[in-house]
Inverse folding.
């Protein structure tokens, strides 16, 4: 009883801090457009929902969020993330037949383009003899397949791209997505690979103009970002299958933090990765097990076995939800 | 006499803080390679130095620097800059016959590519009927000229591209460039358009691992970045023509700060720009005048008249240096 009360109070505090966050955030410019895109996208799922192979929908988040330090933003804190994890995972989800909402940081890695150099337009092309342009020979295949596969994914209608830069944009768009995915019940999935800021400067307390430099340096006070994951799991999309990520540079605290995050937020799996080995190996922490997943060889992606593993977990979860939960509710 | 002593002490303090900065900075990975590239590049200048039209060399810096908050960097503070100013200015310097060292933030705007969309490889190309790829028609001319003009600049040998991400990289590479440009006397120029951090976390006091989040938020103490511009002007390349930039969001303090920077660092010109109007208008502050420079029309660049103005100032300066200074030293 006393514990229940404690949980209630904690949730109330969280609600208040999240309310304050959203109220103080600069409003999203194209919210209506994003909502419409999401409605159309999710509507396609219902076309398939009567058939035997019901389409599943995953929201993959990718890249880091920025936290502005000034309202007319000159300086900001950024979280390092190339977006390669999210981009390659999106490819494997699409190959497995999932519909993918790819919520990514503007300018980060795109699916099917991972094998191109950093600046493909200047590095992969050259002037041709007939005063046109041509692809430089070592990149011929990579450029062709990047453009063809990306376009084919977009044209299929099963791949929706949405982008963000700031933490404010990210969390507002994510909330709209959760509401859309919630309609799909257990067929919906979240794969939250974006590197989200833990600290921010509340819009209310942010300086209007560029911070002036003084001889003594700069003292900054950042507020903790309210933990939206709790709300996502408990209210926004409580039945969707939810995978979160934990990145640490210190291997000693990684697994402890991953397990603690799994319990705290009630997510179905936490992908634990260590900064220096994250491209070779991850550990998936569920309530049943800790599974080490490694890439199969040189030139292979760790995301291939990772997505394979998670899709099986999601299938088991969907089966469980539709059979056992349905039966329980019949009783 | 007392004032001289004050200046001496101030310079000593600056020297010490700059020494401390460079000593504590992580060493540049490819310093030898960069030094060699610069030597070869500047050596070309001497080929022309006997002829009537002596080539001038400008170092254009572009984009913002990052300041890591952790050694194994997950979070960093970034300075907003698309790099468009530096990229377009580089084009006009090249057109005017300058040799350009383009020191830019990795991933920011490239000369000749300014009219392409953000993600040109996916937005400008499409699969063709013969299962190859082709340029989407609205971009046909922009893509062709971007690739041709960029390649032609690189092949001319008058365009050297060097890149940075962190403040530590930027300042170390800039120092090496100043030493190379210093050999050219008044024919050298600096056009410092990069958005350089005013504050940083000294490497020594930086945490090794990812900063852990706590319920109470995060207090950060940043140190002021030592003002390298003083050293650049007084020691590293004292005869080179030097243009610095001042960006503010508050128009009321902009001109005051620009004039104060001109005096403090002894630069030949300060380009003052206000964040919201910087693409239409700048004010060039010299010891003679404050000149408002505006773009000539829709679809035109403010950098065109700006570079034109600065090239004339540089020509007058070179003329003055070679005639009057030479004569004075003969006396």
């Amino acid at each position: 009883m006393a514990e229940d009360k404690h949980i209630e109070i904690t949730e109330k505090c969280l609600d208040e801090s999240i309310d304050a966050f959203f109220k103080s955030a600069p409003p999203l410019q194209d919210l209506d457009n994003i909502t419409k895109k999401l409605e159309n996208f999710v509507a396609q799922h219902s076309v398939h929902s009567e058939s035997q192979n019901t389409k599943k929908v995953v929201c993959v988040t990718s890249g880091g969020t920025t936290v502005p330090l000034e309202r007319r933003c000159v300086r900001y804190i950024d979280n390092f993330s190339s977006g390669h994890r999210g981009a390659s995972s999106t490819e494997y989800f699409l190959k497995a037949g999932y519909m993918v909402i790819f919520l990514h940081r503007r300018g980060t890695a795109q699916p099917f383009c991972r094998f191109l150099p950093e600046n493909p337009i200047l590095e992969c092309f050259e002037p041709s003899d007939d005063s046109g342009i041509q692809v430089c020979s070592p990149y011929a295949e990579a450029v062709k397949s990047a453009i063809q596969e990306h376009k084919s994914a977009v044209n299929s209608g099963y791949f929706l791209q949405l982008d963000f830069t700031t933490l404010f944009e990210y969390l507002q768009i994510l909330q709209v997505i959760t509401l859309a995915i919630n309609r799909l019940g257990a067929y919906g999935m979240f794969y939250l690979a974006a590197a989200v800021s833990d600290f921010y400067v509340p819009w209310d307390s942010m300086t209007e103009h560029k911070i002036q430099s003084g001889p003594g340096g700069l003292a900054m006070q950042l507020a903790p970002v309210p933990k939206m994951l709790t709300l996502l799991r408990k209210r926004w999309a409580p039945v969707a299958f939810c995978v979160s990520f934990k990145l640490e540079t210190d291997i000693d605290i990684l697994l402890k933090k991953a397990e603690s995050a799994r319990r705290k937020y009630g997510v179905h799996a936490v992908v634990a990765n260590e900064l220096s080995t994250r491209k070779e190996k991850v550990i998936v922490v569920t309530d049943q097990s800790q599974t080490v997943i490694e890439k199969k060889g040189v030139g292979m992606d760790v995301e291939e076995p990772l997505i394979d593993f998670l899709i099986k977990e999601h299938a088991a979860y969907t089966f469980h939800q539709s059979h056992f939960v349905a039966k329980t509710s019949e009783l």
In short: The mean pLDDT of chain B is 88. Chain B has one domain: 2-110+151-207+220-330. Residues 69 and 75 of chain B are 6 Å apart (CA to CA).
